[in-house]
């Protein structure tokens, strides 16, 4: 009898334990942290043809002949070869910005006697019935004739054409433009310029832009890529990088002052990703800075994101040259930071505020924060950071600074910097982690024991990296995205510690990438968000502003039975939002009991991403192969019955 009673008791306890494991509790009326408006943002770096050849809509490569090889991207076309018909010339008065131009000697040219062809960035993506604007800077002392402009496909069939006759002949530089439409869509078009006439003409800044840019701005950004960013509803945008901030050496570092003002006066430099990876060498990768700091600020404003510029701290990449400026000679770098704040926020009577106004934005951009250095480390970084911090805080006490914790989320380098930065009461400590999916699953508790009231964390660069058997866009598979979703429950749960987070890198051209995985992939005409993109979108579009506890038993939900969860309240819409990841291959059901909840709405929405194929990716051909699907659901009293599909990420949203 005793044995039978014991067996029954054990069976009862087993059932009770199983029931307990299937029951989660959300304490709706006990918020534990505020979620910052900047919680989920985006990180932009000019890698993988993200700027020129990507979001910057210019179609002409090497438009000002400033590449190391001046005619890279161009081909001179001659029916009868004439030595010196086309020459690259330097002008000393533009030595620091745009010294080179093209000099063309015409000898009664007509038809296809003499011309130029530009290949674009892996071709030019042109669309039927879209207007394209051709522009050029020219100089001539007497009328020379005209330029016949045409877009052609791979078979040299004309897709659209026009002509431009330079109007002024006073030996001064002038800009002229003309527009025409394409009669077909082609991803690999080329631009031809055929010369007609006699005499000498100088050409520079040869440009071709589509009219369907973001907000239809002339010389603007590629609309489909900006729309993908806007749809994320990001709290911030960090720019311009990344490693390009540091440069291979200091000569190649990013200098914001050389990226503002007239486009033709911006100082093109080589992109450090040009030769960074021998297996992905990209010798035609340069930075024209048509997308410069003014355009970054404007983009942030357009998509409702706080701007977060990162500036060089007098240190080049420590993995490459490790060049640095002596601490006693760092004043110009510090002044650059102070001047940038003036450019963004200063009155139109100030030097840099006046330039902002002249560029078309008299109102301030309301810059509130800045990063000093990118992935820099060691005592030399701390020494320079202290100089920057004092100078900026003395003038702008409420201005927030982002400080680097190095390249890795653990180890001696991280421990040293984390300790030093916390002694300095750093505003934000920038932590980076490019790790395996297993690391992300196992680190959902990373911030559970961080101090709540000290320096805040900026998860500035992170992405789940599957093993190297996955190449290029194949690395952005469901396993990677699901592990990021699990990790992000820990970031959200610890919003008292983590103020900002951004996936990295952001963009990649399918034919011009150096680094993978990336959030958004594209070719010359199309673009798509990866599964990781949709995970980011589900978090940022369901952000809320108060964290509330969600527990399994008395513990946070961070991997028990392969389940991860977080819960937030949106006090503006008066909704509860619960995010749950099932990282196992088994379907499971969890009861979510809502304690302290007022009366619930009769129905809410359930949005799910799910696939049993952990290698599932999106593509140009099938951009929504794995994307969120939304349906209604109804609670039972104050309980949500969560039926979690294998390998799924679910977002429950219900009104209170």
TrEMBL record:
Residues 1-20 form the signal peptide. GO terms for biological process: L-arabinose metabolic process. Keywords: Glycoprotein, Hydrolase, Signal. Its EC number is 3.2.1.55. It holds the Pfam family ASD1_dom. SUPFAM superfamilies: (Trans)glycosidases, Glycosyl hydrolase domain. One of its GO terms (molecular function) is alpha-L-arabinofuranosidase activity. It catalyses: Hydrolysis of terminal non-reducing alpha-L-arabinofuranoside residues in alpha-L-arabinosides. Residues 460-648 form the Alpha-L-arabinofuranosidase C-terminal domain. InterPro entries: Alpha-L-AF_C, ASD1_cat, CenC_carb-bd, GH, Glyco_hydro_b, Glycosyl_Hydrolase_51. The keyword Signal applies. Belongs to the glycosyl hydrolase 51 family. PANTHER family: ALPHA-L-ARABINOFURANOSIDASE 1 (PTHR31776). This is non-reducing end alpha-L-arabinofuranosidase. It comes from Paludibacter jiangxiensis.
